[in-house]
Design a protein that fits this description.
- It comes from Limnofasciculus baicalensis BBK-W-15.
- This is DUF475 domain-containing protein.
- It is a multi-pass membrane protein.
- It is built from ten helices and no strands.
- The protein is mostly helical.
- α2 packs parallel to α7, α5 packs across α6 and α8 runs antiparallel to α9.
- It is globular.
Length: 234
């Protein structure tokens, strides 16, 4: 269906903007779980100022890695080992989160950092692992590198905005962090299945639907005022 639309002679002048719109929409939808993972990682630093700096600098490095991945995508997709490594890393994040003890003071699972420079590479590598899924999807839609790079650039900007929002929301909603890591697990399993047998990969709409349903649950219950104040350090 998409191929018929993009190849239609009536669409010659609109193909690039249409493809770009699709790529940006995909980036926005598929960035929700990425954003919450990055927000949760940034929360391993003490104070909102350091958390914002970690996101800013981490995503600058992540952007460079993402562009490198896009430029080498036709080579990378030939090696299933990259997808296995990405899947293993994301599933390790999920395992670490659900098996780690909670920080009693800030109700935070996951890694805790003593400096900004410890958090930056973790944020960059995490985005890189997610990018294996989004970039593979992007090159399946378009073979025009500049379009994919443009979509990726807008995606990183969107990701920074969304991650900033999620840092605030994680302090307000009881199940949101759990929901975020469950969706990270979805992406990890999807990458692993694709590496084993691409024909078994579920359709994109099914992943999006699953992410939406999990996030509906994540936003279903607010924390008490006291819990929110504790997490904000008030």
């Amino acid at each position: 269906m998409a191929d018929q639309v993009f190849n239609s002679p009536l669409n010659v002048g609109f193909e690039a903007p249409l493809v770009l719109l699709v790529l940006v929409a995909l980036e926005a939808v598929l960035s929700a779980d990425n954003a919450i993972a990055l927000a949760a990682i940034a929360r391993g630093l003490e104070g909102s100022k350091l958390q914002r700096r970690a996101l800013n600098l981490g995503l600058v490095v992540a952007y460079v890695l993402r562009i490198t991945l896009i430029l080498t995508a036709t080579w990378v997709v030939q090696f299933w080992q990259f997808e296995v490594l990405g899947a293993a890393y994301l599933l390790w994040l999920v395992f670490q989160y659900f098996t780690s003890s909670e920080d009693e003071e800030h109700h935070h699972h996951g890694p805790v950092f003593t400096s900004l420079w410890q958090a930056i590479p973790v944020i960059a590598v995490t985005d890189m692992a997610f990018s294996l899924d989004s970039v593979t999807t992007a090159i399946a839609i378009s073979d025009q590198t500049w379009l994919i790079i443009t979509g990726g650039t807008i995606g990183v900007i969107t990701l920074r905005f969304m991650a900033g929002l999620f840092i605030q929301w994680l302090q307000e909603y009881e199940h949101l962090e759990d929901a975020g890591y469950i969706t990270v697990g979805f992406v990890g399993v999807r990458l692993l299945v694709r590496a084993i047998n691409p024909e078994l990969v579920p359709p994109e709409w099914l992943l999006v639907l699953a992410i939406v349903l999990v996030f509906v649950w994540g936003f279903s219950s607010k924390k008490t005022m006291r819990e929110s104040e504790v997490e904000k350090g008030e």
